[in-house]
Amino acid sequence: MPKVSKRKSQLHAARACRVSNVKVSDSSESSEVEYRMDIDDEELRFKDKILLTDIGDLAEMRKSKSDTQYLSTLLYISLRFFNIKWEDVDDYLKNIGFMTAKTSHKWATVFIEGDYEEFSSDLRGGKHTDSFYDAFPEIEADAKALIIQTCSQKSGEFKTLDLAQFIDEKYYELTGIKKRSGDDLIRSERSCRLDVRR
Fold it and tell me: Does the pTM exceed 0.70?
């Protein structure tokens, strides 16, 4: 292993010192209590496209816990506040699986004009169904086995699209329904990517 240059070692020491000196105090507790935050030396590259899939996964997780309307409106208002072009906001919201900018703008207008009752009650009643794997636990078990088998192979190459197609085949096999051409996958690639993270 090559020797680290003096400049790099000084930089590493300075970063470590800076991170170890970060203190966050809670005003509700005594002033003697200190909290330290360990921050990784490597910063995230927020312009990378790979990060968009991570954002989409996080959005998918939040959509399962709260209404998309609130999240889309919050993101839309925030991005427009920072003067990001409407078209860019629309593309971004679509890419992460949220409502379009047009719909988000409509809900933002309702919220900003103060009609909170209309904003908070869209009369859809919320989500009252089981998750996909609650209804088909055998598909979940088969999907986990596929992931383990694929990752244990020598190449170890695993694609979430392969998992989505596998789940699609198993679903139609299990239910006996015939898939029509042009039908979407039963579980989207984004949902499968989130399943793998769990």
Answer: no
- Note the Cα 169 to chain centre separation in Å: 25
Task: Report how far apart, in Å, the C-alpha atoms of 13 and of each of 9, 19, 35 are.
Answer: 6, 10, 21
- Per residue in 141-164, pLDDT (tens digit) is 888 888 888 888 777 677 888 888
CA distance 63 to 61: 6
Contact 117, 137 (CB under 8 A): no
pLDDT in tens, 10-67: 666 666 655 444 444 444 444 445 555 555 555 656 666 656 677 777 777 777 667 7
CB 63 within 8 A of CB 57: no
- pLDDT tens by residue, 108-128: 888 888 777 777 775 455 555
The domain spans of the chain are 6-36, 50-120, 132-197
Q: In 10 A of CB 98, how many CB atoms?
A: 24
Beta strands 23-24 and 35-36 are antiparallel
Contact at 8 Å (CB) between 164 and 187?
Answer: yes
Q: Which long-range contacts (CB under 8 A, 24 or more apart) does 100-108 make?
A: 101/76, 103/72, 104/72, 104/73, 104/75, 104/76, 105/76, 107/69, 107/72, 107/73, 107/76, 108/73, 108/76, 108/77, 108/80
* Closest CA relative to residue 108, chosen from 84, 66, 62, 74: 74
